[in-house]
Write a structure and sequence with these properties.
alpha+beta; 2 domains; 13 strands; elongated
Length: about 325
């Protein structure tokens, strides 16, 4: 499942198998804090198996640039696109985190960064090639980092092309909206200009930050259901029907690769895992009436229901939880 990393309530979700899970979670949270504070962007990770194209993209650069093959198993990956930069992250079971910074227009600012979680050994495949500098982090303890500059071109991969396409579409949409808005406001601005005093300092320009858009962002949910194995599709469609029953006015579309349901804001989402399907319920845990403890999770803003078979589809409880989540966002 896709997971928005919370840097205020640090969790090891998705990283539990790492021998330095707590430190790796802190390192991941440190990245989330950076993107929230600098770009006002959420840092959303996916299991490596679901994000194979991102992992392959990073591994391709490592192999072609420096003949490096990472021995550890990748656990999660993430990608963001802000200010013309494509950021791709992979977090490994050993505690290693790799990020690729790839500017789409400036070939001089492209690099691969390595970060080592507090307490882990330097991976053998990196030890003889790089020197690591230390930095302190309140979230991650001591982080050791190194990097190298990318010399080749890697912007034409399928994933990269999707990013370019999404960025171009968003830019076109933004420019069109801006022109329409400017046309509507022009008369009012002209009138206001006559009354307003001169401003010698000039107007400050604000830069729009483009959020990463997956190719399927905003798509209908039907295709997602159709792609699932029959046994999971039945469970997903049953949950979908309950969502429509609990919140008839909800809008359903694909976001972060999964069916996402919104009223004024998102209140629930569906996802799949190898052995179950899941329902994310977006509200503080204390709001849910769950005497049997069926809901899972440790965060402050969400709980999860894992559905492994039809026996787990307790309609009465699920409808109650859905209505609670919907009411919280109405």
């Amino acid at each position: 499942m896709a997971y928005e990393v919370d840097f205020k309530d640090v969790s090891t979700i998705g990283l539990e198998s790492s021998p330095v899970a707590a430190a790796l979670a802190g390192l991941r949270a440190n990245e989330a804090r950076y993107f929230r504070n600098k770009y006002d962007q959420a840092f959303v990770v996916e299991p490596a198996k679901k994000a194979k194209k991102l992992v392959d993209y990073v591994h391709r650069i490592l192999e072609e640039e420096r003949d490096i093959i990472i021995e550890s198993r990748p656990l999660e990956a993430a990608e963001l696109h802000v200010d013309g930069i494509r950021w791709t992250f992979v977090f490994y079971e050993s505690g290693l985190a790799i990020n690729v910074l790839y500017t789409l227009d400036d070939e001089k600012k492209r690099a691969v960064g390595f970060k080592l979680s507090d307490g882990m050994e330097v991976p053998e495949e990196l030890a003889s090639r790089f020197k690591f500098a230390k930095q302190k982090s309140k979230l991650a303890g001591t982080i050791r980092g190194s990097f190298f500059v990318i010399k080749g071109e890697y912007g034409n991969s399928e994933a990269g092309m999707a990013v370019r396409k999404a960025t171009a579409e968003e830019t076109t949409s933004r420019k069109t909206s801006a022109k329409q808005s400017a046309a509507r406001k022009a008369p009012a601005k002209a009138a206001a200009a006559k009354k307003a005093p001169a401003n010698d300092g000039g107007a400050k320009k604000t830069s729009a930050r483009a959020n990463l858009q997956r190719a399927d962002l905003g798509a209908p949910v039907d295709d997602f259901f159709a792609r699932q194995p029959p046994e999971q599709r039945v469970l997903l469609e049953a949950l979908h029907a309950m969502i429509e029953k609990a919140a008839p006015d909800a809008r359903a579309s694909i976001k972060w690769g999964m069916p996402y349901y919104e009223l004024k804001r998102g209140f629930c989402a569906l996802y799949t895992a190898p052995s179950y399907v899941g329902l994310n319920l977006m509200a503080p845990p204390e709001k849910f009436d769950d005497p049997e403890g069926k809901l899972e999770g440790t965060g402050k803003t969400m709980r999860h229901l894992k559905v492994r078979s039809a026996a787990d589809l307790d309609e009465g409880s699920i409808l109650r939880w859905l209505k609670t989540a919907a009411a919280h966002h109405s």
